[in-house]
């Protein structure tokens, strides 16, 4: 970025560690098989280069996958000693670590996220989720979820493109640890790490049918969710699709968890350490290009420090490096798809049209690929679309408040309720405000911190059920309530 006085020499990670085949099938019953639908292409969003062609699973393919999962559940995985299930999960976790660099490069190629994040966040956290749940496999009696908790059966799982491998881990690890088998559908723009995970399942000698991966778009997802022999549905993605899934599942015996959108408030009080808060704001909204359901997309600043904070924030944003996701110096990578880029542009244009003030650093963007500079809107009012709707991109909306009560009222003035942040030096204020916020996760003097031991999930239109921690186990067990 030209405003940056320190220019870094490029430090590209080599892509030669990954071996992308010209085409991929579905992973059903331990084998790669052709899908019956029209294959689709997945691209590298940083270059628009086609990476490979992937099978589309039809309803008939999903049916085969569910049948394989049912057989594996009834004959092998369900009856297996819990400690043995744990051994498989430990093995998967170790294999993810051994092949971490390969997963990180592949994730950055298919998704556009910086290698620094896929290497240091996505892949280690995915392995951590398998390690954590491996430990639970033979201790479910002691999870406080009742005596002898029982698996549900076959789980149908649909995940988005923002954290492809990590969302897979959030879904697959707890399902397997609790004795369920799975049919998982990755997002259509980012199927490749799930297919590499299928290879890990084979390497780990996981019994065929325990994990099945069916690629495709929304129709394939619908076939998974609506399949009559699925006992549990777990979905992460947009609120709109989440609502349609809730309707489809209503009245069936299926258990459902929904992890949907968010519009988190990141609240900065006048006694907060400004430099730390600035780092937290940057981390909150520009991590993963802002493609984060719990992103701190609404900055609420106490009025008395507004100008000072915004000036610091702009200085800091001026040092962010936008560009090649495989460069180890890159802070902000590519927007995941042309469609998502169009949505970010549209909402940002609305922001300006509705009277907010757009600021972007001077920033040279690559010519090919999908890019959007880090963006800050000031003078945003709560009624503006950019204050209400999830942009799911590197766009921050700044609002102000005068009193703690006003901060809480504005923070809760949203149809969502996934996460929130509080920046203040006062511990008592953190506890008081956190109790008043209607959000599943509240971070204090930090943001976007994830850990497999900590439950994650939403209020209101952000969804229901929890993933992670002891609460997350309940979502995959009979009788246990995850809420
Ligand atoms: P989406 O909800 O359309 O897609 C998520 C997953 O659901 C994908 O695998 C998709 O193929 C599948 N799907 C689509 N229609 C389906 C249906 N009817 N039944 C079953 N599965 C279906 O999300 P998107 O189009 O990728 O993104 C749109 C918006 O969603 C974003 O702008 C953002 O606001 C939000 N989003 C939220 C999250 C999150 O983590 N909460 C993640 C991605 C996107
Ligand atoms: Mg892709």
Keywords:
binds magnesium ion, Aldehyde Dehydrogenase, Chain A, domain 2, single chain, Aldehyde dehydrogenase family protein, 18 strands, Aldehyde Dehydrogenase, Chain A, domain 1, alpha/beta, 15 helices, binds nicotinamide-adenine-dinucleotide, 483 residues, globular, 16% strand, six-stranded mixed β-sheet, 2 domains, Ald_DH_C, seven-stranded mixed β-sheet, Ald_DH/histidinol_DH
Description:
- This protein is an alpha/beta fold and 483 residues long.
- The chain has 2 domains: 15-259 and 459-478, Aldehyde Dehydrogenase, Chain A, domain 1 (3-Layer(aba) Sandwich); 265-444, Aldehyde Dehydrogenase, Chain A, domain 2, CATH 3.40.309.10.
- The chain has 15 helices and 18 strands.
- It has helices at 59-77, 82-98, 100-111, 115-136, 164-177, 192-203, 218-226, 239-249, 274-286, 306-317, 338-353, 385-388, 404-412, 427-436, 469-474; strands at 23-24, 26-28, 31-33, 40-44, 49-54, 154-158, 181-185, 211-213, 232-236, 255-259, 265-268, 298-302, 357-359, 375-378, 395-401, 419-423, 441-444, 463-464.
- The strands form 4 sheets. A 7-stranded mixed sheet has the order 13-14-15-12-11-16-17, with helices on both faces.
- Helix 12 links the parallel strand 14 and strand 15 (395-401).
- Helix 1 crosses helix 7 and helix 4 (115-136) runs parallel beside helix 5 (164-177).
- The protein is globular and about 65 Å long.
- The protein starts with 22 loop residues before the first strand and ends in a 9-residue tail after the last helix.
- The mean pLDDT is 96.
- Magnesium ion binds next to strand 4.
